[in-house]
Amino acid sequence: MLKGGARTMMDANQTAEAHCICGKVKLQFLRPLPVLHVHCCCGDCRQGREWVASEGGPSMKQAVTLIYYFENDLAPLDSEALSSLFSVKLREAGRTTRLITKCCHSILAIDHPYYEENVACVHSDACELVAPHIDPLSRIFTDGWDAAYDGEMPSTTASLEDSKAMWEKFAGIVKRPVREAKGIKLQDILAQLPPPTILGLAEKTRLLPPAGSRDSGAGIIE
Length: 222
Ligand SMILES: [Zn+2]
Ligand SMILES: [Zn+2]
Prior knowledge:
Blueprint: E1 2-3, E2 16-19, E3 26-29, E4 36-40, H1 43-54, E5 65-71, H2 79-83, E6 85-89, E7 97-101, E8 107-111, E9 119-123, E10 128-130, E11 138-140, H3 147-150, H4 155-158, H5 164-174, H6 186-191, E12 197-198, H7 211-214
Parallel strand pairs: 1-10, 4-11, 6-12
Antiparallel strand pairs: 2-3, 2-10, 4-5, 5-9, 6-7, 7-8
Bound molecules: zinc ion (2 copies).
């Protein structure tokens, strides 16, 4: 959930943080303005969120994954916070690493080698994200939308562009080097944790009933 969305003016004291839904652990971004916001339709983002939801973490409100990227310049974590975190990969060959809290299975950040350590990725429905609002650039991985399972793509996502030009913009932003970093990198945090837990989930496997059916209780097949 993105809070503080009405604030579009930056002030010197403004901060951004991803904290877990129980409030115990927070990850603070030293450059509070997100550099990029996209809607992702891919199966892996969705599966990672379904996995934490199935473990008692943040519930799946919708199948589209709302992604915010911040410059990879983070406040250091103390030993108590570090001991409250672990990391996972969806499968052995998975390239994405998710930083998850032990207390409430919130995903605080996500790393992928494609970002080349320039940005930290946050799924705003998988934690509590407090940050200034920016508009989405585009939707990505449209071919990963599971219409048979989730139905029609929401219009707020479907109205966004998915094109080669948008992807080039995306790549240009996530690969922009951090200048004069004052804090630590997401990789510094991951390096202090045990190796990622491998979940062994097959690609495209769904772990929960469709998001739209859960509020009413329908779709839970016995
Ligand atoms: Zn927590
Ligand atoms: Zn994705």
